[in-house]
Amino acid sequence: MFAAICAALADTEIRVAQVADEEVISITGPAAESESRLPNRINAKIHDLSSRLRYVYQEYLDAGDRVEGSLVLRFTIQEDGYVCDVGVVEESLHNPDLVDSLVDKVSHWFFVPNRDEKHPGRVTCVYPFVFTNSVRYSPLEVRPLRDGAELHPRRRPYWIDKEINPQLGELEDIYDVYLLGNPKLTGTITFEFVIGGAGTVDRVDVLENTTGAVSLAGDVSKKISGWEFSSLEDTNSGHDVVVTYPIYFGSGRAED
């Protein structure tokens, strides 16, 4: 069995954003009876769009803000589907910058145009959102490659951990091959690698290897060197980060 992350090593706290989109409180306006503006249609579309609010909220959590609360917005959906006149009805987030960012994001939403000739025009909706966060732990550590630089929002632990997890399965295949020759092979290998602004891994080093299998560490290093992460709009080296990541190979849990 391959265990990618051992709880004994997972000591980096990561806050995970959660946005609960409820149901529309009210829909008013000349197009309120249009098929495309019925409550079930509005609710379904907002459910899809709310992930964009979660990304905004996540950035504030990554920066160290622990705010939670609710936000009720009023916004108008125009006949062409674009949103305008977004305003706050009430909120308990008590973070003006976050609220402004969320309002700005909603102002860029787009719904299906209203093509109902019997009920043309726009509608105004009032909709509640609830923002909470949970905690998970990861073994990774992240620091800027350049001293004094700040971590880009997409290079903070939450995002790197999220992008590493789907790629860990590739390492299981490598480990399975080594288990054929040594079924008792277990241990932790700690890797350090650099992620560039373009999302490629520029360097991989082995900091520690308790498995005793040098070739296993080498093969895993080669696989990690091919990992891909989100490309940043600004790919200058000032956003390069160094990631330290211990991986436990074996069944069960590594010891402290």
TrEMBL record:
UniProt cross-references to InterPro entries, sorted A to Z: MasK-like_C
Protein name as annotated: Uncharacterized protein
Organism: Candidatus Coatesbacteria bacterium RBG_13_66_14
Upper classification of the organism: Bacteria, Candidatus Coatesiibacteriota
